[in-house]
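Here is one chain, start to finish.
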Amino acid sequence: MLSLDHFLDLAERPLGTWPGAFVVAVIAVLFAVGVHRIGARILTRIARPYPLMSVVLRYIDTPALILLIILGIGFMIFEAPDTLPFIGVLRDVETVALIVALTFLAARSAGAVGEAIVQAHPLDTDDNLNARRIHTQARVLARSVMVVIVIIGFGAALMAFPSVRQIGASLLASAGVAGLVAGIAARPVLGNLIAGLQIALSQPIRLDDVVVIQGEWGRVEEITGTYVSIRIWDQRRLIVPLQWFIENPFTNWTRNSSQIIGTVFLYVDYRMPIAPLREELERILAHAPEWDGRVQVLQVTDATDRAMQLRVLVSSFDSALNWDLRCRVREGLVNFVQAAYPQYLPRARADLSTDKDHHHVDFAPSLERSGAPQAASTANTAADPVASRGEPSGPDPRAHAAASTAPSPGSKG
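Its structure:
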């Protein structure tokens, strides 16, 4: 009857030669692949009701297979006798490969956890402020952890070689100069890494935030371990280092809420009644799906020597809707003034004195409108188009009457 020691002795005999070791390695690889497939099917069925676990298993599937294959080959290499040619070199390579595989598996596991948290909090909701906060923290922290894992794995792989360990000891002996040089060289990398952790914890920006950076308006599209990608409204990309957000001021339109108030400026003549404009604004907003019903204001905010400045405040759920709402309101009010009060569009005024009687004349560019009388005023100057054609100089009384006569505030045309 075969004992365990006898079985191990029979298994070690083929490892004395390279053909036998190759056959054992192939068997070990096939065994590792079989274990991976069986284990993956079992774990997939167990994790099916749990989305978080399913995402993690999908991410670590390939790293786990690579690790099992390396372990199978490592069984052959470390069980082979020391007399086998080049076995020492292969053992060093196997050690490095094992460290790399473990690092790959650990990094993918960290990324899988972050991605699982992101998928559990979708952004396509009405109020995605909390989801954007979780997305930013999960992605930035996961990438920071992955960077740390890769650095540790790289150091462990280097320490597997005796020559590197001796170099490391000699470097430690002169740690003063080496540490200073390494610190200066690694300052951008370490600075961005620390800035990434600060952004993940304090969150001055989040994914899908609307920001204005150096006059550029856009949304935060991606936060990596070294930079932030801003998708500008015209589909350009603004790449900003992480450390810039910690050291420089910028505008965040969605820091606490996506709701925003927009402004629309309109310039009209002094004689323009304000009440009809307020009624028209109310009518426009009542039929505007972009308006959230919070803010509706029309005020005279300035009066220059040429016209009144009207400021309209309207609110929307987010900045994209507010942009469309501002355009809708601006177009609607301009069309209303053109149709109902064309004589109250902004005018240029001039005071012409030809004799002792002073004539006050208002003139403005003619309105090209079908069915509407063309009111024009002339001036006795070389730049006047009527004077340049040799027509009688001086103001036209009919034009003067049309320009200076204004309907009552309650009229609509």
